[in-house]
Design brief:
The chain has about 425 residues and is of the alpha/beta class. The chain folds into two domains: about 210 residues, Periplasmic binding protein-like II (D-Maltodextrin-Binding Protein, domain 2), CATH 3.40.190.10; about 160 residues, Periplasmic binding protein-like II (D-Maltodextrin-Binding Protein, domain 2, 3-Layer(aba) Sandwich), CATH 3.40.190. It has 19 helices and 14 strands. The strands form four sheets. Strands 1, 2, 3, 6, 13 and 14 form a six-stranded mixed sheet that branches. A four-stranded mixed sheet has the order 8-11-7-12. Helix 9 packs across helix 10 and helix 10 packs across helix 19. The radius of gyration is 22 Å and the shape is globular. The N terminus and C terminus are likely disordered.
Length: about 425
């Protein structure tokens, strides 16, 4: 579905109509809006899941695509839910959205057996539970990952991916120089997400936390104006024009992926979802790349948590049918079936021990290791409905450093003060933790 059609559908939904094809009125038709419906492979996989659901239940499902950027996605979700529109019925809920959208979502506990809820990672169930209400059932988990061209590393004599940020800089620079010497003039060492967006918040938190600078709000304290954070932001600024293209300051997830998949970069930081098109038949990177943990800093290697679940609008006219769809998509059987081909990581721990699943997705072992040892949570739970403003202040400050508009010390001090103002503090202390 095109972006134009997506916008048209949203406008129609807000006027109380449904963007649906003609159908048998005796059959229920649900509408699902999902921000993961971005690449062809994911579209096909979701269509197949929904086809199986329709065959099993008789309930049709139509998918409404979403904008690429998380900021625009959240704005769209809030507009639709806040309008009282009866459609969409089911919403994909990003891991940082439960507290932001909880008031407009149904409690799923009456519809999901306790044993099925217990099958998921407990932290994800806790994250999706607001005031005792389960507002989303986990569907996929994701973490920040380092994608690398294994063929190029082997060609230039490297037996393993870089373990530290310093090693990344050295290896990326060497491969970049060598590839350009062979005529690949547009080749770069490392691409990532530098646009002023939620993706930059995730990247910068990984730099900051791995360097020992905390996670924005750490142990009840706003932790930005410190030497470790300043050092990590400045290091990233130094990459631009060196091992990263000047345009990286405008890159979002798929911008970075397109450069890397086209053979114009050795390393890429991204989420798990690009693994699907990267490993697809016909992809120029198929069989030529591997995935590793992000490089470590003084405090180790860390990755921000991503992923999403599915929730049901409290305005849906078909709450039981919608909850049935959520239960189906997020259940163990469907998650396992999905993971027998290249897929995003499941939210059910037991599937990480399944030999067939790991054969199709060997990188799941890395994801599980990161999830259990080295995960960074964005402070969405502790800041609640203020989180979008907090994140915006953070990524705008980082972006000023990347663009050379402010020095890292200036930006960190200003960001610290701004976050304290947003949260309403006179001193840099808040109750709660980074989660």
């Amino acid at each position: 579905m095109s972006v134009v059609l997506a916008s048209t559908c949203i406008a129609v939904l807000l006027t109380g109509q449904a963007c649906r094809q003609s159908r048998n009125p005796s059959r229920t038709t649900l509408t699902l809006i999902d921000q993961n419906w971005a690449d062809k492979e994911s579209q096909n996989a979701l269509k197949e899941e929904l086809r199986r659901f329709t065959n099993a239940s008789g309930i049709r499902v139509e998918v409404l695509p979403a904008p690429e950027a998380a900021i625009e996605q959240l704005a769209t979700w809030r507009k639709l839910l806040g309008s009282g529109a009866t459609s969409p019925d089911v919403y994909a809920i990003d891991v940082i959205w439960p507290k932001l959208l909880a008031d407009e979502l149904l409690d799923l506990k009456p519809y999901i057996p306790a044993r099925e809820m217990a099958a998921h990672f407990p932290d994800l169930i806790a994250n999706n539970t607001v005031d005792g209400r389960l507002v989303a059932l986990p569907y996929i988990v994701s973490v920040g990952l380092l994608y690398y061209r294994a063929d190029l590393l082997h060609e230039y004599g490297y037996r393993a991916p870089p373990q530290t940020w310093e090693e990344l800089q050295v290896i990326a620079a060497r491969i970049q120089s060598s590839e350009r010497a062979k005529g690949n003039a547009d080749f770069w060492g490392y691409v990532w997400q530098g646009a002023p967006s939620e993706a930059l918040t995730c990247n910068a938190l990984e730099w900051q936390a791995s360097g020992g600078g905390g996670t924005m709000i750490e142990n009840g304290t706003v932790t930005l104006d410190n030497p470790q954070t300043i050092r990590s932001w400045q290091r990233a600024a130094n990459w631009i024009g060196s091992i990263s293209p000047p345009g990286v300051t405008a890159y979002k997830e798929w911008d970075a992926f397109n450069i890397w998949q086209a053979g114009r970069a050795a390393f890429m930081r991204n989420w798990a979802n690009p693994y699907i098109p990267a490993a697809a038949s016909g992809s120029p990177t198929k069989g030529r790349f591997e995935i590793a943990r992000l490089p470590r800093g003084r405090a180790g290697s860390t990755a921000t948590l991503g992923g999403n679940g599915y929730g049901v609008s409290r305005h849906s006219q078909h709450p039981r049918d919608a909850a049935m769809l959520v239960r189906f998509l997020c259940g163990r059987d469907e998650q396992r079936r999905r993971c027998l081909t290249p897929a995003q990581p499941p939210t059910i721990p037991g599937l990480y021990n399944d030999a067939e699943v790991l054969s199709a997705n060997p990188y799941f072992a890395t994801v599980l290791d990161i999830y259990r040892n080295g995960l960074t949570w964005r402070p969405s739970a502790v800041t609640g409905k203020l989180y979008p403003e907090v994140s915006r202040a953070y990524y705008e400050s980082v972006h000023e450093v990347l663009m050379g508009k402010k020095t890292a010390p200036e930006a960190a001090a200003a960001a610290q003060e701004k976050l304290m103002q947003i949260i309403g503090l006179k001193s840099p202390v808040v109750s709660g933790s980074a989660r």
